[in-house]
Amino acid sequence: MEPSVYLTGQILLAMPGIGDPRFERAVIAICAHDTQGAMGIGVGATIAGLGFHELLAQFELDPSGVPDVPVHFGGPVEPRRGFVLHSTDWGGQDTVDVAGKWALSGSIDVLRAIAEGVGPSRWLVALGYAGWGEDQLDEELTRHGWLNVPGDPAIIYDTDVDLRWERGFKAVGIDARLLGVGGGTA
């Protein structure tokens, strides 16, 4: 089954009652989606007790010039692997442009650039990612579970993490407070 639209550069929102507690109220920036599968970075939750300064210290980078922002839960796959989702005004050795909306980097050069004040103008750090195998996301999109919305960088960078899920629904005219977990009967 080949999808009619690939979602690279879109945002996925978990519907209420998705059935997997790891994805309750998930907001995922899709960074790759093709015939081989899909990959995205969760931007809707942070990891309690882990700040950016602690992460920089692990790489012996001076954190004094940057804010100690929370680190995001990027997803359940490879939860010790780090990623930086960032604006397209910076690029490093492994940076991937995501549909001209944001970029994704996963090597230490982006952390070093941020610490030195010469990195991307907008960024967030995440551990782990959400991944889907061949046709898996396409199949999940045919059932109740996910809603894809336009990949608006403002949802990622200009919205408090606790409000991103609601803002994503609002972007397509849905009041998330009115969403139910179960279906009715007729």
UniProtKB/TrEMBL annotation:
Cellular-component GO terms for this entry? cytosol
Q: Superkingdom of the source?
A: Bacteria
Give the matching InterPro entries: AlgH-like (IPR003774)
Q: Which family does it belong to?
A: Belongs to the UPF0301 (AlgH) family.
Q: What is this protein called?
A: UPF0301 protein BFL28_14620
Q: What is the lineage of its organism?
A: Bacteria, Pseudomonadati, Pseudomonadota, Alphaproteobacteria, Sphingomonadales
